[in-house]
Amino acid sequence: MRIAIIGAAGMIGFKLANHLLQHGLSASSPIQSMQLYDVSPALPMPLASNNYQYHCIDFSSPHAAELIVRDRPDLIIHLAAIVSGEAEKDFDKGYAINLAGSQLLFDAIRHAHEQNGYYPRMVFASSIAVVGAPLPFPIPDEFHLTPLTSYGTQKAITELLLADYSRRGFMDGIGIRLPTICVRPGKPNAAASGFFSSIIREPLHGQTAILPVDPSVRHWHASPRSAVNFFLHAATMDTAPLGARRSLFMPGVSVTVDEQIQALRRIAGDDATRLIHYQPNPDIQKMVTGWAPGFEAKRALALGFSAEQNFDEIIQQYIDDEMRAGA
């Protein structure tokens, strides 16, 4: 199998590439080649194997789509994106990467299909930002898409393209509507949701963290380990049961910020939670008020996707995968 990962220098892309290089995808589909793409000049650190090629590309360039499709990968995992806060701040950049770049890629696949029948599995990283307030709780799979951010709008439009190009037989697409991934390792990124990770990560490392929203805010989370497993499962699952509805809300854990903090207290004690400082930010508070509190995710669960059962598990996975692994 030939695999391409777009956005490979990001947290999920890097972890996914590492997993594939160490464990493969399936016994029946050995990996023949792995091509990794990102705008970053290099990967954040060496991968577990040298059996890959890395390409620094601007995903919004037509040449990027041509390069990705040139080797006819059997599986394309599309993680390239400008994150929520940055997409809201820079309108043109968000649409260039999150929408125009995706359509260029889909068109390159279509042209290759018309030339020689090329038909890859396309796994697209979408987002729960495709829905917007007012929202029920839990949110059913059939809930309408009414994004309230440019980022969510760009993801929703790309989902429609994914479904249409799949319906026309150009590719076998599946959209993974990711929960907020927490606890993210490393430094904060430009995502407006970054504080959900920082109020756990920084105290675990003995550092202060800023909480910009009311502790009553409720949101939907899954761990980086679950995120990787979502894409691995989507890469090999039978997509026939999806029908025309090609995108799925992934399972996760619904908790308030206060419940996050209580989980941290149970695992790391009062010394850790005392490092969280509440400094209200009206702009962030306004933004998160319209975010999804949680989903039923019945379709994804029925199709074999799974995630953590509680937030304690999410914190413990961060400790096991990031802190103990790096010790």
List the helices and strands and how they pair.
Blueprint: E1 2-6, H1 11-23, E2 33-38, E3 53-56, H2 62-70, E4 75-78, H3 84-89, H4 91-116, E5 121-127, H5 150-167, E6 172-178, E7 180-181, H6 194-204, E8 209-211, E9 218-222, H7 224-236, E10 247-249, E11 253-256, H8 257-268, H9 270-273, E12 276-278, H10 282-289, H11 298-302, H12 311-324
Parallel strand pairs: 1-2, 1-4, 2-3, 4-5, 5-6, 6-10, 7-9, 8-12
Antiparallel strand pairs: 9-11
Helix pairs in contact: 1-7, 2-4, 4-5, 6-8, 8-12
What's the helix count?
Answer: 12
Radius of gyration: 19 Å
Give the count of structural domains. 2
Question: CATH H-level name of the largest domain... which superfamily?
Answer: NAD(P)-binding Rossmann-like Domain
Show unreliable segments.
Answer: none
- The helix/strand series, from N terminus to C terminus, equals EHEEHEHHEHEEHEEHEEHHEHHH
Q: For the residues shown, what is the average pLDDT?
A: 95
Structural class: alpha/beta
What is the CATH topology assignment of the largest domain? Rossmann fold
What percent strand? Answer: 15-25%
The strand line-up of the biggest sheet is 3-2-1-4-5-6-10
CATH architecture label of the largest domain: 3-Layer(aba) Sandwich
Q: In words, what does this structure look like?
A:
The protein is of the alpha/beta class and 327 residues long. It has two domains: 2-179 and 221-249, 3-Layer(aba) Sandwich (Rossmann fold); 194-219 and 253-293 and 309-324, UDP-galactose 4-epimerase, domain 1, CATH 3.90.25. It is built from twelve helices and twelve strands. Strands 3-2-1-4-5-6-10 form a seven-stranded parallel β-sheet, with helices on both faces. Strands 7-9-11 form a three-stranded mixed β-sheet. Strands 8-12 form a two-stranded parallel ribbon. Helix 2 (62-70) runs parallel beside helix 4 (91-116). The relative contact order is 0.13. The model has no long low-confidence stretch (mean pLDDT 95).
